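Entry 0007
Protein: PAS domain-containing protein
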Amino acid sequence: MAHVELSLSEVFVPAAGTSAELESDNFRQWSTTVSHADEPCLLIDAETKVVAVSASGCELLCLGAPEDVIGFPLLDGGLRLVDFTANPRELTEAEIDKIPPLLALSSGHLARGLLRVQGASSDDHDATVDAISTPVLTDGTVAGSLTFFSEV
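Output (structure tokens):
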């Protein structure tokens, strides 16, 4: 039989301010949450720049340290994605557009898929990860995406 626990906390009430201030506060809160998360996760903006990444996310995705990738485009920060063949080759641009973090940006919907990440050095191992992404909306438009990863 399943066991479910529920905890209640205080309701967050945003401070009064302009819509832009509240939206940036929302993105800032997600950034803080991701930066301090134990789980491998990533927050990118609409231009695919890394806004926040957890330390475990950096480790799983072979990205180095969070400060090395924050502010840079996701794919320029050292993320090496390869296909699932016996002799892995880097993904094409069309294939990269379909990875969950980018698909959530372009579609505005939840996206899920498997990724094969190749380490930068020969000492690093390839990792297969399950990625679940959701768009982060700001005033009804997609402002970024939030992705959680799990090694398979």
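Curator remark: The two ends are 26 Å apart (CA to CA). Residues 83 and 111 are 18 Å apart (CA to CA).
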